[in-house]
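User: I'm putting together notes for a lab meeting next week and I want to include a structural view of one of the chains we've been expressing. I don't have a solved structure, so I'd like a prediction I can at least talk through. The sequence is below, exactly as it appears in our construct file.
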Amino acid sequence: MTDELDIQTFLGEARQGKWRPVNVLVGAETLLIERAARYLKKATVGDDGVRGFNDDLFQGQGLVGAKVVAAARTLPMMAKTRYVLVRDLEAVAASELDVLAEYLAKPSPSTCLVLTGDKLLGTTKLAKAAKALAGKELDGQRLGAFLTVEPLKGPLLERFVAGEAKRRKCTLDQDAQALLVDSIGNDLAAMEDAIERLSLYVIGDGGGRITRQAVEAIVSRVRVETIWKLVDAIALKRQKMAIDAVGSLLADREQPLGILGQISRQLRIVSRMKDALDEGLRPDEAVKRAGAPPFKARDLSESAKKFTHGDLRRAFRVLAETDQALKGSKRDPEIVLEESVLALTR
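Assistant: Thanks for the context. Below is the predicted structure for the 346-residue chain, given as structure tokens.
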């Protein structure tokens, strides 16, 4: 029997605490793959345990399949399950993929093994074994899942947008959803950020319903190049450069809350990039972890070098305070934003 799954259904199951012993998730949609890995970890070992106690992380470059298998076959300590994550399958040597394929013949029922990457050729033994396992059950539990996660389009993208609003306990008008998709497209990281800001906006307004008017007020097509100039100015503590960038955006009738949201989003990408580079990943590998397109690898590497972890923590505190001020203060929003940028560049 074939297990026909789409990523949204898989995420829903993982969110409910359901997991399978083997999960192969490959494709270009990094945000959903990372989210699935996070949900599976929470379902099996939780978020608050000691890191490395019942979970293991392996990178594809130089991976030794036998070490992954040994980790997966280790019995959980003072718990019911173990969690083993392998990233960047595309970087794993063919011989080591074969070792992983052998494990799939009899996976441990007490381990959740998650294999992720950009791609996995269907001709490999691992791909064939994973697809075969996806159709098998043991005591009523599915043993595996094999998902190719590509950028969402059409109904799947609309379902994602509606689901993000629902997760935040908001209703989403049809014309609001259409405008969101038209404005942002299938950049899921940007969409997630926009819906988060919209949910805070409408709930703070006493509602919970996202309308077209709310989208028009909060979500704008901020000029990306100017935002990056602003981020660079924050990193280099150049106040004039930062204020000029903000002034340019405001002159183009961008909303202060929208500008703040884009600054926050870009800094989160920089933060994820810095963490990935600190782990020893190459820029082309780190950019995927950051959730940015491959062509941004060089620029993001340079941006990550300009910030210390302390700089980023302080920036996020300032941004959070500014977000509250923009939503709860009667002061001029443009002045609030400019003061925030001055604080970020001190």
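A couple of points you could mention at the meeting. Residues 222 and 252 are 9 Å apart (CA to CA). The mean pLDDT is 88.

User: Perfect, that's what I needed.
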